[in-house]
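Minutes, project check-in
Item: structure for the 350-residue chain
Input as provided by the requester:
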Amino acid sequence: MQPPCRYLLLLLYLLFLSGTWADLEESFTVRLLQTSTFQNTSFVDTEGLGLLEDIELGSLDKHTWTIRFYQPWVRPALPRSDWDTIQNMIRIYLQQFNHLINEGAMQKDVPYPFVAQCMAGCELYPNRTSRAFAYVGYNGQDFLSFDVDNATWLLSQDTNLSRYVQAVLQNFTAFSELVEVLFNDTCVDDMELLLHYGRAALERQELPVATVFARTPKPDQLLLVCHVTGFYPRPISVAWLQDGQEVPPGPALNTSTILPNSDLTYQIRSILAGATRDRHSYDCRVRHRSLGKGSLLIPWGNSELVLITGLGAGTWVARPAATALWVWRRRKHQQMEESDSRNSILSKEA
């Protein structure tokens, strides 16, 4: 019997064969995610997803156990015969996984229903070194993790069930050796093809839309809100400046996590608490890859809208009365429309 995650890791090996190295100056992570809900000993509902960073490569049809491709460049990366092999391996893996989990659940009197999860993948660094990982979860909690360097499974929670699964997995020495070879020796080469085909998607950039406005939940309380949305990729820096100095983390500063939008971009909100009679000046500063070395600097509390360009640091400043709003995409579209209009006039004149 093959252990859980072995075929999941083999899929990574088949997915990322040799190709042309993409000259990208950052780290990249590929992950295969599996969630299996065991309703009883005879019915298991399984979902699977493949990701390169936050780009969804494809998912698993839970009824047929076949791959559904989400990106047009994923399927052409491998010949049809390789995809057939991968789909057959998915079926074998899931059959073995379900059998082993059900067997352990019955031996340890685990109550149904429950959820088992598995995540495997590797992270590739700019110097062409890599780090592999494999995790098993149970009912939404960390359960086991694989130490690639020592080829051992580590307990994330110490229970009779986790010790049982750990012992079963640890007996599969061939699996441990496979993980070491795949991820310590070949992850760099295996990742090349995917990075090559997906380079345009990985380098996609969307400019942020930043808005600053105020709320007064109490007569003497002022909440300054900086809402930034529509940006891609995900990493972003949003900070408040008080009289030109960055406000450090504290009870007055509350920044949300980065949340996804429906159009495959992201949003974030930062709220700074103050007093209505506060006479300090405040600015919301946004830094993002799409802005290059510049940044968005949106002051609060000015009487008119002013666009300042040509600053040495490449900073853009918007100054409104009650709301500071700078929509980068709109400006970009206007420039394109003006350019098209000029080209049309020149064409008619010619």
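Outcome recorded: The longest strand covers residues 28-40.
No further action items on this chain.
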